[in-house]
Amino acid sequence: MSQHADHLERAGDGSPRYHDTVHESHRRLQYRLAIYSELPRRGSGIRLAIYQAEAACGEGATEKNLKRMEEAVAHAARFEAQLLVFPELYLPGYTHDPESARAVSEYVDGPSLTRAREVARANQMGLVLPYAEKLDDEDGRSRYYDSVAVIDERGELLDSYRKTHLYAQQERDNWNEGHSEFPVHRIAEFPVGVLNCYECEFPELVRILALRGAKLVVGPTAADTYYRLPDGRRSRVPYPDVSRVVLPGHAYVNNLFFAYSNRCGYESRGEDVWHYRGNSIVIGPHGDPIVAAAESQDTLLVADCVPALYGRTHPEPGYFYLKDRRPELYEALVARDARFVDIENREVEETTDLFGDPHRYRG
Fold it and tell me: Are the CB atoms for 269 and 57 separated by under 8 Å?
């Protein structure tokens, strides 16, 4: 961003406005690499690619983004990537109302995933491709999900993962809650787990995947810096940069690689505008950033994830977090009732009684 500072203006609410030339430069795909001279040995590691971009939204977005998907695969193939991950709801765009969410949703065997599977098979590259899913249940009702298609290098659909933890009111208006056993997938003979956006911030979910053998967790996301409503108001608090404050800890305590695949740039629906963080990153098992994208730059990240190249994290051999758990002590983690202070309707103040019942959460 600094190289473009002289072209940058600020709106009254502090949000950036770019001149056309600067916006165009951000849309030129930049490569950022952290790969070794040889492809990881099959089964011992994986060459991962992440596509961060300002994707199309609105009418015709799915077809436009499918075309860009094929272009992204071609770019990733130049580096022999074995798995390519896209941001949340990449195909139809993230910002929807209930009516448009239903209009863009597709069945799992619909044209978009059929085409994606063909592309994966032709390029021998796994894809983690988020889309809007329609499902007709046995009760005759149609349900709609913020889903992630997990496709292996043979073009096989391993899972249509339906987001289980929806974020904020827009998502809850648009989508049904999914349910999952949180499977670990074999892609290029490497164990990969998948979460979706807000879910990446739940340590319980990452731990489940780690206990089931995942050595790489990928998280498509649509994390914004801010959004602006039709009346001109901007969201008061920016979304936290979890790529720096949350995900490194997940990687470290679970001894795995974590890949966060976010959008960048802007997306609008009517007069509403979202500005995405663009903080895509690949983090190593020691909590170390391996390769990261710039805030607003369309970027292809490519990184080799090889567990054997990372030593243990604690000095005493044979002892580490996953092994040293005591599950018999963790009953409170799954309790419906909890005693934390509920700040949904009232923030904590200096006079708040932190032991009092009026603000306690009850599930």
Answer: yes
pLDDT of residue 48: 99
Cα dihedral 71, 77, 82, 86 in deg (nearest 10): -20
Q: Which CATH number fits domain 2-318: 3.30.9.100, 3.20.20.390, 3.40.50.720, 3.60.110.10?
A: 3.60.110.10
Question: For residue range 78-107, what is the model confidence (pLDDT) as tens digits?
Answer: 999 999 999 999 999 999 999 999 999 999
**pLDDT tens readout for residues 326-350:** 999 999 999 988 888 888 777 888 9
- Alpha carbon 120 to its chain centroid, in Å, reads 20
The bridge status of strand 190-194 relative to strand 157-162 is unpaired
For the four alpha carbons of 77, 78, 81 and 86, in that order, the dihedral sign comes to negative
Helix (H), strand (E) at residue 71: helix 61-77
Sign of CA dihedral 233, 234, 235, 236: negative
Which strand (E) or helix (H) includes residue 287? Answer: none
pLDDT, tens digit, for every residue of 276-326? 999 999 999 999 999 999 889 999 999 999 999 998 888 888 899 999 999
Mean per-residue pLDDT, 210-238: 87
Q: What is the DSSP letter of 176?
A: P
Question: Whole-angstrom Cα distance, residue 358 to residue 360?
Answer: 6
Would you say 290 and 284 are in contact if contact means Cβ atoms under 8 Å apart?
yes
Planar angle of CA 285, 291, 297, nearest 5 degrees: 145
Helix axes 203-211, 247-254, angle to 10 degrees: 30
Q: Which two tokens stand for residue 44?
A: 């011992």
Q: Taking all residues of the chain, what is their mean pLDDT, rounded to a whole number?
A: 91
The conformation of residue 235, written as its DSSP 8-state character, comes to: P
- Which residues of the chain does CATH 3.60.110.10 include? 2-318
Q: Distance between CA 168 and CA 188 in Å, rounded?
A: 35
Distances (CA, A) of 17 to 1, 12, 113, 199, 299: 12, 11, 35, 31, 20
